[in-house]
């Protein structure tokens, strides 16, 4: 149990970065993606950040969010002890208190009013054998979102016997065994399920992906701090180079960034197969060596304002989406 908790919030960080003499990756392309709101998903710490983006960034991510092995917005209350306790399901979560604290952030202007999220589509997933983030934590998230967004379209799945990680139906480790790169082959197409809930009916996924569609890009113009990696990944179907596609942001979990697993999550999440046939760009931001255990900041390791609209990691990701919305010059 202690080792499982350390997976989420260890004080160790791995110093993986581009070599000083290596050429920088290309800039994130301007693709003219649709400007009517991105969708976002994440696993583990990425699930927490996905919910933060959904609630803190106004209309940009208001359309829909998917949280895999995640918990309520503001659950940690800025405390690593709280993160390691109730937020992992070790003790009950005070959902009414978190609802009140979220509403207070709106009143204080730290996050925008939640009007844009009232018709949002929300997909929640928790593995039945997850010993890191308890099913009760996901249930607390569901209760919180129902209180904050009573008209949202929320669905939750907790019956798959999965350990802690991102579930796939193709290549991956045993469903009930937590092992790098934390892609669990449970015979369940989680990517397809969450995308169809967020976006509506989709064309059948591709059986083969176009070569070169997954690209590395330079993240440094969006945030210079070491908690963001020097490069991220973006999947761009050939049809999307001409503009007009939708965009989905996918957030890895702890020990799942490029420093730990390379492009495994970006390449094998299953999201790209659906994106290839449905005019969907998938953005895979990456944490860096300064991010605790490769985790996204959901308990305040980067500062007290980690939940607000101006939190550095969230501003960086919002900036990446804004870049994708721009049209190429000339």
Question: How would you describe the overall organization of this protein?
Answer:
- With 330 residues, the chain is α/β, with parallel strands linked by helices.
- The longest helix has 14 residues, at 135-148.
- The strands form two sheets. The chain has an eight-stranded mixed beta sheet with strand order 4-3-2-1-10-11-9-8, with helices on both faces.
- The protein has ten helices and eleven strands.
- β3 (121-125), α5 (135-148) and β4 form a beta-alpha-beta unit.
**Helix-strand pattern, N to C?**
HEHEHHEHEEEEHEEEHHHEH
* Spatial strand order of the main sheet: 4-3-2-1-10-11-9-8
Shape: globular
Percent helix among the residues? 25-40%
Distance N to C terminus:
56 Å
Number of strands: 11
User: What structural class do the secondary elements suggest?
Assistant: alpha/beta
Q: Report the β-strand fraction as a percent range.
A: 5-15%
Radius of gyration: 18 Å
Mean pLDDT: 92
Largest sheet: 8 strands, mixed
Low-confidence stretches: 1-20
* Tally of helical runs: 10
């Amino acid at each position: 149990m202690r080792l499982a908790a350390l997976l989420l919030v260890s004080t160790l960080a791995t110093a993986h970065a581009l070599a000083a003499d290596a050429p920088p990756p290309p800039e994130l392309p301007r693709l003219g993606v649709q400007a009517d709101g991105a969708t976002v998903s994440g696993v583990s710490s990425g699930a927490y950040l996905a919910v933060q983006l959904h609630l803190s960034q106004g209309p940009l991510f208001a359309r829909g969010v998917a949280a895999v092995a995640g918990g309520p917005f503001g659950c940690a209350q800025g405390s690593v002890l709280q993160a390691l306790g109730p937020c992992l399901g070790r003790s009950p979560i005070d959902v009414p208190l978190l609802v009140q604290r979220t509403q207070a952030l709106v009143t204080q202007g730290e996050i925008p009013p939640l009007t844009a999220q009232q018709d949002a589509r929300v997909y929640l997933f928790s593995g039945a054998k997850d010993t890191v983030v308890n099913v009760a934590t996901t249930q607390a998230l569901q209760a919180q979102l129902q209180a904050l967004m009573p008209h949202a379209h929320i669905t939750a799945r907790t019956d798959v016997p999965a350990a802690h990680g991102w579930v796939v139906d193709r290549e991956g480790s045993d469903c009930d065994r937590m092992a790098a790169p934390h892609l669990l082959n449970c015979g369940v197409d989680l990517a397809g399920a969450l995308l169809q809930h967020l976006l509506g009916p989709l064309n059948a996924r591709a059986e083969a992906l176009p070569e070169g569609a997954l690209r590395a890009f330079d993240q440094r113009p969006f945030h210079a701090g070491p908690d963001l990696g020097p490069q991220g990944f973006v999947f761009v179907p050939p049809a999307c180079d001409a503009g007009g596609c939708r965009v989905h942001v996918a957030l890895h979990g702890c020990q799942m960034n490029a420093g730990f697993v390379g492009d495994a999550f970006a390449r094998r999440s299953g999201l790209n197969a659906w994106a290839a046939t449905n005019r969907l760009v998938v953005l895979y931001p990456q944490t860096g060596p300064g991010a605790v255990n490769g985790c996204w900041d959901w308990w305040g390791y980067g500062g007290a304002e980690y939940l607000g609209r101006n939190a550095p990691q969230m501003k960086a990701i919002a900036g990446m989406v804004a870049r994708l919305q721009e049209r190429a010059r000339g």
